[in-house]
Design a protein that fits this description.
alpha+beta; 11 helices; about 30% strand; disulfide bond; zinc; redox-active center; Heat_shock_Hsp33_N
Length: about 290
């Protein structure tokens, strides 16, 4: 059983270690089919969307975990988000000539990796991930160790059909054999990427830990969802200002804005702009021009 689009959390009874497995099939396809991403971009986004799902699994608030890779090379931006409701989305900006290359080369000098926790209520929290390591997994492992003092092992994989990942974390106040962490990690490191992509959580846990006592929680469904809306786009246009919005409509006939995540198009004509600013801003701008 592949257990498509699920997050499976688990806990070792004899070792102070918790973990999670995620497999994204349909949700990942929703990202891939909306954009014609080159292979190099798909490889980065697939790992990031799996990683965001895994790290969000242990969040204790209602909100969103956002990962952002900012680069000055061929990969300008890669973003993956996961909410506490287990919905994901992702997007990227890149040079048209981007080709397969190591992550550091894709990002170029001066790249940054930012993790943001954005609760529905309260202030967001943001951390900068050092670009230390050859992969997204290694960078996040280093980040968790330095920011949370939490030993973490991440294994990430993706292809055109599936994005998947395994997360292990040593609990600071756990129970059982405190020296068992290296053993659990060593077994995880035997997992091949093609196995991670092909097998479901039950099969992977049995394959790695059938000699351990592992408490497996109910699987949680993960799905693609975008929170864009006409209202949100309207709020963005309000920040642009009435005159600027009216100028664009007068020059182009309307304002058209597309969501970078899901591709939804939003069109605002003269009536929409007047309604947005709650007065006849179009007439005012026309009069000012004359």
């Amino acid at each position: 059983m592949n257990q498509a689009d699920t997050l499976q959390r688990f806990l070792f009874d004899g070792v102070p270690v918790r973990g999670a497995l995620v497999r994204l099939d349909g949700a990942w396809q929703q990202v891939v089919t909306r954009h014609n991403y080159p292979a190099a971009v798909r490889h980065v986004l697939g790992q990031m969307i799996a990683a965001s799902s895994l790290l969000a699994a242990n969040l204790k608030f209602d909100g969103t975990l956002i990962m952002q890779l900012h680069g000055k090379g061929a990969l300008r931006l890669a973003v993956a988000e996961c909410t506490n409701e287990r919905t994901v989305r992702a997007t990227a900006r890149f040079d048209a000539a981007i080709t397969d290359a190591p992550l550091a080369e894709l990002l170029g000098e001066g790249g940054t990796f930012v993790v943001t926790l954005e609760p529905k209520e309260g202030e967001p929290w943001q951390g900068i991930v050092a670009l230390e390591g050859d992969s997204i997994a290694q960078m996040l492992e280093n980040y968790m160790q330095r920011s949370e003092q939490l030993d973490t092992r991440l294994i990430l994989a993706c292809n055109d059909d599936t994005a998947a990942g395994l997360l292990l974390q040593r609990l600071p106040d756990g129970h059982g054999d405190v020296e068992g962490w290296p053993h659990v990690v060593a077994l995880a490191d035997t997992l091949q990427q093609d196995e991670l992509l092909a097998l479901g959580a039950d099969d992977i846990l049995y394959r790695l830990y059938h000699q351990e006592t592992v408490r497996v929680f109910d699987p949680e469904a993960v799905s693609f969802a975008c929170n864009c809306s006409e209202e949100r786009v309207g709020e963005m246009l309000k920040l642009l200002g009435g005159q600027e919005a009216a100028d664009v409509v007068l020059e182009q006939g309307s304002i058209e804005i597309g969501c970078e995540y899901c591709g939804q198009r939003y069109v605002f004509d003269e009536d929409d702009v007047n309604r947005l600013f709650n007065f006849d801003v179009m007439a005012a701008v026309r009069e000012a021009r004359h």
